[in-house]
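Thread: Newbie trying to understand structure tokens

Hi all, I'm a second-year student working on a class project, and my supervisor (Dr. K.) asked me to get a predicted structure for one chain before our next meeting. I've only ever worked with sequences, so writing a 3D structure as a token string is new to me. If someone could post the tokens and maybe explain what I'm looking at, I'd be very grateful. Here's the chain:
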Amino acid sequence: MSTTKDKSIVADLSLAPEGHLKIDWVQAHMPVLNRIREQFEKEQPFKGLKVSICLHLEAKTAYLAKVVQAGGAEVTITGSNPLSTQDDVCAALVEDGITVFAKYNPEPAEFKQLMIKALETKPDLIIDDGGDFVSILHSERRDLLEGIRGGAEETTTGIVRLKALEKDGALNFPMVAVNDAYCKHLFDNRYGTGQSVFDGINRTTNLVVAGKTVVVVGYGWCGKGVAMRAKGLGANVIVTEIDAIKAVEAYMDGFAVMPMIEAAKLGEFFVTVTGNRDVIRKEHYEVMKDGAILSNAGHFDIEVNKPELEELSSSKRTVRRNIEEYQLKDGRKVYLLAEGRLVNLAAGDGHPAEIMDMTFALQAMSLKYVNERYEEIGSKVVNVPYELDEKVARFKLESLGTGIDTLTDEQKAYLDSWEEH
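---
Reply by user tm_fold:
Sure, no problem. This is what the structure looks like when written as tokens:
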């Protein structure tokens, strides 16, 4: 059932009071974004502009939308994952004057249509997650490309898609690679993913991690965080990789490293964080332990191959919320969390507010940056300027009541000279 108000499509507007409480809670724990909001309210960098946002639609994202709105924008928002949208938060945003096209767990066709509706508002700027907006705009709805100045991308997966577009000369506007900023991958991808993945797993399964074998598939920044957190919870951690350098890094970080076909025989919990497809597939299911628990923390639900799992199964049933039990034909049982979607968001609340404070501060400032320079940037993918990255870190330190040192004039001269010893 959907409720509409003005242009918005949400599940139930009566849920707004609870949504406001959630947004108020995260706002109180997002001091960097609060500071940027104060600047935006004074400067009005988006006055007269339309901004469409496609992100996991929960309380922290909602507050980002309100910060962009405070900068003068007419904001529209939709969800980037059908299972991470929170209906009460959507209702609260509608009350706050933001157009929302989102609800929890719509049918696949409706989910995509809600994204398209957010683009049909003809935004000047976009914030994207996983390249979903950009993909739609550059394929089936090219008629909506006109007038888009640029935008910012949240994830590794999205940047891969953007760079493929850029390489083919098909990208139509500039995009800022927020995911590649230091304050994003060092903190959000590592500490945020590490904590939120196990928040989702623990909440969903109610099982102990200590003493179990956790297989982390992929050792990028997200994989580093997941492995670190699993180790902290007392797990025995195995890492699988295709990159020799990352594999050596995982080994020197103290983790066992082996091919997936070997790890599949040992794992009790599996977490995929690769951004690629079919990293757990038929040959792995065939050797897994009875009771193995599978989860994904990559953007799309294709890292764990579900069709092949179903092909090997004699039955499937939901045994707890967000846990599907696959009874294999040989009698073993394998469990899949959150339909193979992002376990930290589909089965949890996502990254901690203090982590997303930094990431969404980067998003807000990157949107302002691309709006001011879209003509000179042209149709390409650009990094977040270091000065914006460093500014977020300084705001974060100030919010913690922590200071750092400054170089003296003599130290600066020493570093700038090849002659001084």
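A couple of things are worth pointing out once you decode it. Residues 353-377 form the longest helix (25 residues). The mean pLDDT is 96. Feel free to ask follow-ups in this thread.
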